[in-house]
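Title: Comparing notes on inverse folding

I've been comparing how different people in this forum approach sequence design from structure. To keep things fair, I'm posting one structure and asking everyone to reply with a full sequence. Here's the target:
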């Protein structure tokens, strides 16, 4: 019977991957898809490395400890230590993901170039979104003191932060391995989905074996894996918008729809439109992916798995729309 459960998981994974591969306007060669999926199977490693480090060396960066400075210190010192812990954690996650990508691509020049570009561009989406959630939790404690009802800073705070970590790592794997290969936004969506699919597959295997109940593999292949697929696909779309920021912000057709929104930053700081647009889309992508991922995980935590089903249906419809939109943008991108 266990063999059937494992087989059902593998078949479901293949079907999910095939569905989204066929949605790609100009899909990457199957060799590239297989490579990114194979590397994605190891994307759980930074999560385990992170847990090992905070359990044995740096407990201050544990997901349930990261917000404590905000909750139990004065405002200024709390914010300072909170930011230090976040930056330290982001550096660790970045380093773990880069090491895995380098090892599994046999130190390819493209991977080194992608990592160098990521460092040069100072991508702080992880820190930015974490800060927003940190202040949300800080505000929650103020409400909690009035109503005496815990809302976020226990279970929900941990789930939120773990979702950020997982989405950040999945994105880094794509960025380090295939950033130079992106021809259009479709590629960013599909490659992100393949890493999300591989991440979900390994998470499901590990979860089933740890709990000693392989029947969970069947149910999680229908519920948990699609959560990772949809969240990664959403992030992939916005990553694609960010990647092609220059042609999109310089476009004369459709500029009104795809131009950057942060006009004030552009005016005050005299930054390039494409630079603002690029950062803006990365933060939006991570924020929306984390919101979807967290909502589903909270429902699982509350034993409301049935409520996840309509969310998955909405998410799959959204991915179909994002693919269609990326097809329109393909002509816009390659016109410049």
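Reply #1:
Here's my take.
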């Amino acid at each position: 019977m266990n063999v059937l459960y494992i087989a059902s998981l593998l078949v479901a994974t293949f079907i999910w991957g095939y569905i989204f591969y066929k949605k790609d306007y100009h899909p990457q060669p199957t060799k590239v898809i297989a490579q990114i999926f194979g590397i994605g199977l190891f994307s759980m490693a930074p999560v385990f490395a992170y847990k090992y480090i905070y359990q044995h060396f740096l407990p201050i960066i544990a997901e349930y400890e990261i917000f404590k400075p905000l909750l139990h210190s004065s405002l200024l010192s709390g914010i300072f230590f909170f930011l230090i812990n976040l930056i330290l954690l982001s550096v660790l996650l970045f380093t773990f993901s880069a090491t895995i990508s380098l090892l599994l691509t046999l130190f390819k020049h493209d991977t080194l170039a992608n990592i160098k570009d990521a460092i040069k561009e100072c991508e702080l989406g992880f820190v930015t979104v974490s800060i927003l959630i940190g202040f949300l939790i800080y505000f929650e404690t103020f409400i909690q003191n009035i109503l005496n009802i815990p809302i976020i800073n226990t279970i929900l705070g941990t789930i939120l932060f773990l979702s950020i970590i997982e989405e950040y790592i999945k994105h880094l794997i794509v960025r380090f391995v295939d950033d130079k290969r992106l021809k259009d936004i479709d590629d960013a969506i599909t490659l992100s989905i393949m890493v999300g699919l591989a991440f979900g597959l390994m998470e499901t295997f590990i979860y089933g074996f740890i709990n000693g109940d392989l029947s969970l593999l069947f149910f999680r292949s229908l519920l948990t894996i699609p959560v990772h697929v949809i969240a990664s696909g959403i992030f992939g779309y916005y990553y694609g918008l960010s990647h092609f920021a220059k042609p999109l912000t310089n476009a004369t057709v459709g500029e009104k729809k795809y131009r950057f929104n942060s006009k004030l930053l552009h005016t005050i700081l005299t930054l390039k439109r494409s630079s603002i647009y690029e950062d803006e889309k990365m933060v939006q992508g991570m924020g929306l992916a984390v919101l979807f991922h967290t909502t589903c995980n909270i429902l699982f935590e509350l034993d409301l798995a049935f409520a996840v089903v309509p969310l998955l249906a909405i998410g799959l419809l959204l991915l179909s729309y994002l693919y269609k939109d990326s097809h329109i943008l393909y002509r816009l991108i390659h016109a410049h």
